[in-house]
Amino acid sequence: MSGAVDDPAALPPPAGPLEGDRTARARAVVVLLAATLAATILLSLASGASDASALAVVGGWIFGPEGGDAVLSARDAIIVEDIRLPRVTLGCLIGAALAVSGAVMQGLFRNPLADPGLVGVSGGAALGAVSTIVLGGTALAPVTALLGIYALPGAAFLGGLAVTLLLYCVSTRRGQTSVATMLLAGIALAALAGALTGVLVFMADDRELRDLTFWNLGSLAGATWVKVLAVAPVIAAALATAPFLARGLNALALGEAAASHLGIPMQRFKHVAIFTVAAATGVSVAVSGGIGFVGIVVPHLLRLIIGPDNRYLLPASALLGGTLLILADSVSRTLVAPAELPIGIVTAVTGAPFFLWILLRRRGVVDL
Amino acid sequence: MIEAQGVSVAIGRKPIIADVAFEARPREITAIVGPNGSGKTTLMRAISGDLPYGGSIKINGAEIASLKPWQAATMRAVLQQATALSFPFTVREIVRLGLVGGRSGVLPGEVDRLPDRALARVDLEGFAGRFYQELSGGEQQRVQLARVLCQVWTPVLNGRPRFLLLDEPVSSLDVRHQLIIMNIARDFARSGGGVVAILHDLNLTAMFADRIHVMHRGRLAAAGTAAEVLTDTIIERVFGCRLKVGVPPADGTPYVLPHSAIG
User: Fold this and answer.
1) Pairing, β B14-24 against β B2-11
2) Which of A15, A251, B113, B137 has the smallest number of CB atoms closer than 10 Å to its CB?
3) In this prediction, what percent of chain A has a pLDDT beyond 70?
4) What integer pLDDT is reported at residue A297 of this predicted model?
5) Backbone phi, then psi, for A137, in 5-degree steps?
6) How far apart, in Å, do the first and last CA atoms of chain A sit?
């Protein structure tokens, strides 16, 4: 290569950040979000219907129980450790899982509007979950007996995976994924999964109906360590996989062929991405029902701030998703205390207007 | 060296190209020309490794279909006809994607500045901070070329030539930038790499291409130098146009075209 501009010495050395380079800002935002999440967790542990002092309990973990307050501390410890902590942990895990699933799905389908809830993945997971609740005593009895607490998340995962694969097959022809087909097929699959779920609900007896209603409200209430342990390994694995998807998702913004030309093994990449989304969405739906809009709102908000680079978008989404869901859960359990508002209502009431705002604001840019 | 023999590609059951022989040497610009729908892009996509093909296509001795994506990414970079972007990336972020999987060949310390050098090459100095979607079609095309150049920045890596595969690289460019881009291709070839380009402008082809492959109805109609291939008979047979191929007079001889009259 010749010419003056090609001589590295001909370009001035970088003075400060490079033009068009948003990595420094993105890193700062990730750090800020991590701090926010930590603060949110502590705040959430400290607040609730009881006046149990989280500070005292956390102090107890660190400094050992203090003699005089031993009785009170034991009660507080139970409230904080066995009621609030599992709930906050679950909220954090599920918020992170939903937000990262949304971000991965949007990158995979090259569309900012893709979301596990919108395109039927959550519906498929719900169908799987409802199947185990309704058929767990009869048709699926051997399976539920074998898998125990993992039967419900397992079935939800399979349901989510089935819809994701169907969606991909229907909307992809000759390696080109049609976005319009994907959205339409997703709506159709969501309707189908919803109808099949309806059939199961119709078949359910009174006891199962109570389980279903409770589950379907979309709530983190009833969070226990058992539930946390059932979902934590899956979500942790999905979150650990996400960073490895970042490069591929970035390249995929140029289209599938171009991503492959850049050296990304597209087939394997797509399989891992689909599997990750189905797993994270499936187990989230299994324990918390349908919590909408986290998967769309969080990645979008972050793209406006740090840009679409998935190396930062994915961790930032996990952190902000966790934070927002913990906050939404706090709202849901304090707004009408001592009763609880289903968290799905809180996320939908805040998320839906935001979604509309994105559509209006980006109408010129997002071309379906 | 890219060598292809008996290449056929069918999409579904419909054969698009059949029995095509192709050769692109290092240090040369190899052009593919032909009318719309003659199979140029399909041939290019087979060479890029996008489509399953019959026959054999080898790059530096390795069969394309057997290469892993990251291996292929170190041997060639591909510029597609049009790239629609799904998210609001800046120009720098797009150009930097060229460094994702391949090996630019520059020293590690220079990698951060490579996008700026590539943008300067394609006459887009100072565009790094702009949003890709806000650029004109021609500017976007040049941003993509800058990305492609980053991927194979050194035309020779470990003593083996690397290739630029360009599908209509100048289709939406003004004449100044057509020449800039074709000169980048020529420089790449002169430095030891190889260039394969689909071109529509036969004059530009005659000016820059060392060898020309002419596609016609999914088959190779002719291959050779500009003088061998761009003849009245071949143009008429392939493009269905009866016209005279003109030749500028020998160097130094002034000549006057009547249709250059002003006023």
Assistant:
1) antiparallel
2) A15
3) 83
4) 87
5) -85, -20
6) 41
**Which value does ipTM take for this structure?**
0.91
Most confident of A161-165, A204-208, B144-148: B144-148
Q: Report the sign of the C-alpha dihedral through residues B10, B14, B20, B25, in that order.
A: negative
- Reported as a single tens digit per residue, the pLDDT across A3-48 is 444 555 455 555 566 888 899 999 999 999 999 999 999 888 877 6
Residue A273, domain extent: 85-358
Cβ-defined contact of A261 to B155 (cutoff 8 Å): no
- A29 in a structural domain: no
Question: Which residues are CB-neighbours of B15 under 8 A, at least 6 positions away?
Answer: B8, B9, B218
In a mutational test of the A interface, the residue from B45, B50, B75, B86 whose CB has the highest number of chain A CBs within 10 Å is B86
Q: What is the CATH number of the domain that holds A155?
A: 1.10.3470.10
Chain-chain contact of B116 with A1 (C-beta, under 8 angstroms): no
Write the CA distances from B86 to A353, B21, B163, integer angstroms.
23, 37, 27
Going by their DSSP bridges, the two strands B76-79 and B163-167 should be labelled as parallel
Number of compact structural domains in chain A: 1
CA distances in angstroms from B66 to A116, A248, A264, B56, B151, listed in the order given: 35, 21, 15, 11, 21
Six token digits for residue B167: 């599908």
Distance of CA B141 to the CA centre of its chain: 12
Give the mean pLDDT of chain A.
81
**Min Cα–Cα distance to chain A from B201, Å:** 25
- Cα separation of the two ends of chain B: 51
Interaxial angle between packed helices A121-135 and A179-203, expressed in degrees from 0 to 180 and rounded to the nearest 10: 20
HSE-CB for A227 with a 13 A CA cutoff: 24
Closest C-alpha to B29, from B213, B158, B178, B170: B213
* Cα distances (Å, whole numbers) of residue A28 to A35, A182, A297, A312, A314: 11, 35, 20, 10, 14
Write down the H helix ranges in B105-165.
114-121, 137-151
Distance from CA of B233 to the nearest CA of A (A): 37
Q: Is residue A104 part of a domain?
A: yes
For the domain made up of B2-86+159-260, the CATH class stated in words is alpha beta
Residues A96-111, mean pLDDT to the nearest whole number: 91
CA nearest neighbour of A94 among A218, A3, A184, A196:
A218
- Nearest Cβ partner of A2 from B77, B90, B187? B187
A102 touches chain B (CB under 8 A): no
CA nearest neighbour of B223 among B239, B209, B208, B204: B209
